[in-house]
Design a protein that fits this description.
Blueprint (H helix, E strand, L loop, with lengths): L7 H8 L5 E7 L21 E6 L2 E5 L2 E5 L6 E7 L2 E4 L31 H10 L2 E7 L8 H4 L4 H19 L7 E2 L9 H12 L5 E3 L18 H10 L2 E5 L15 H7 L1 H14 L1 H4 L5 E4 L6 H14 L14 H8 E5 L3 H5 L1 H4 L4 E3 L13 H9 L4 H16 L11
Parallel strand pairs: 1-7, 7-8, 9-10, 10-11, 11-12, 12-13
Antiparallel strand pairs: 2-5, 3-4, 5-6
């Protein structure tokens, strides 16, 4: 449904019913001094740091994209870390720019809205957007910090993870009065280090940790190996939500090498389908019944069929598929109890809400990415679910997120 198909008086009525949003998937563009101001002096020349240089070429080398600064043209912001180079691209800092101007070209910090990286400016942009509280995933270091997994110096990588988490808690969220919600990282290459980092951050009130939707895609042990059980156990024990952003497995679905980017951008939710199926059959949710999972930017319209299919496979193919080996209950049982998914553009999913589950969905804005709805996120909410009854609207817009993350936020007495 598009705005042009809804009478303005109907839209206004719907909008009046949308309360202040609790946004569980936005992004932060890491500020230039994040690591250089926190790492020990001996690591600052190798740790992540901003260098201003002309935009350069991007080449595919051994299946990976390699970026190299150019020699001509205006300077853009580059992240240098060990021997890797990455430009900050316009499409990750797209807020305020029309779609035709959002490209994959490099930009400087001066080319972005300050809300991309300055906490007080982010809160101001949230005000413009009707957002009361917001949780942010990283950008440059990828959605679960996998850049540090690829680092050569493990001591430096561990310090980088810790520095990011300290900055997230102390600076990004510190003075926001609870309006910015901390989301921390773990050292992905060592489960015991990951356990220790979850404990360290839980002790200071952090209730969410970023993790890969498909760790095996990163060359890490799978969910079926039980390698990650100590991590899931500590998250369950501390009420830490395992938060998995679309694309956090790095490898994304592709149909062919010559397909346009639009193909991959459309079918990327396939990673979430694979991840949720992995969790449902792995036994993780059976072994840790208080563990909560959050799927970010995955949308929700695909979930009803997946639940139908996993339950049918669990029953119909029980003689050979081993679906019941780790899941004594139908897989959808674990979904209803323990999995939450976010959406911001999914009218189909809302129409299937009785099958997706009202208790299992949350709203997001994706600020400042191109796909995001800023500064019209309340309008987007009104268009998609503003026709529901008020308790359902409140649950999707804020209530489910407050419950999931244990947030201490005032409950508005009136919508709008």
């Amino acid at each position: 449904m598009t705005e042009g198909l809804v009478r303005s008086d109907v839209l206004d009525e719907r909008l009046s019913r949308i309360p202040p949003l609790v946004d569980v998937d936005a992004h932060v563009v890491e500020p230039p001094e994040l690591w250089s101001s926190r790492l020990p002096a001996r690591f600052r020349d190798a740790g992540p740091r901003i260098v201003h240089a002309p935009a350069g070429a991007v080449q595919l080398v051994d299946g990976k994209y390699v970026e190299t600064p150019g020699t001509d043209g205006p300077d853009v912001a580059w992240w240098f870390y060990e021997d890797t180079r990455n430009q900050i691209k316009r499409y990750i800092a797209a807020a305020g720019y029309p779609a035709d101007e959002v490209t994959n070209e490099g930009v400087s910090y001066a080319d972005m809205r300050p809300g991309c990286w300055i906490p007080s400016e982010r809160v101001a942009d949230m005000e413009l957007n009707g957002v009361q509280a917001q949780m942010c995933f990283p950008n440059y270091i990828r959605f679960c910090g996998q850049v540090f997994l690829w680092g050569k110096d493990r001591e430096l990588a561990k310090l980088c993870v810790e520095a990011y988490n300290d900055w997230m808690v102390e600076e990004w969220c510190g003075d926001s009065g609870g309006r910015l919600i901390p989301l921390c990282l773990v050292p992905l290459w060592d489960v015991e280090l990951a356990v220790a980092e979850v404990r360290r951050n839980a002790a200071r009130g952090v209730r969410a940790v970023a993790f890969s939707e498909l760790p095996a895609y990163l060359g890490l042990p799978s969910l079926h190996s039980r390698y990650w059980d100590p991590f899931f156990a500590v998250c369950a024990d501390n009420g830490t939500v395992v938060s998995m952003h679309i694309g956090s497995g790095t490898k994304t679905p592709q149909t062919s090498s010559d397909a346009p980017g639009a193909v991959g951008a459309t079918i990327i939710f396939g990673n979430s389908v694979a991840s949720m199926t992995d969790f449902l059959f792995s036994g993780v949710l059976h072994r840790f019944p208080s563990l909560k999972l959050l799927y970010a930017e995955a949308q929700i319209g695909w979930i009803p069929y997946l639940l139908e299919r996993v339950d049918d496979v669990w029953e119909t193919h029980r003689g050979w598929a081993k679906g019941q080996e780790n899941c004594p209950e139908p897989p959808s049982t674990y979904y209803r109890r323990q999995i939450m998914s976010c959406f911001f553009k999914d009218q189909v999913g809302v129409e299937l809400l009785d099958k997706v589950g009202l208790d299992n969905v949350l709203f997001e804005t994706d600020y400042p990415h191109q796909d995001g709805t800023w500064p019209h996120s309340r309008e987007a909410a009104a268009m998609q679910f503003g026709h529901l009854d008020q308790p359902a609207i409140n649950q999707i817009a804020r209530g489910n997120a407050i419950k999931l993350l244990g947030l201490d936020l005032p409950d508005p007495t009136s919508a709008g």
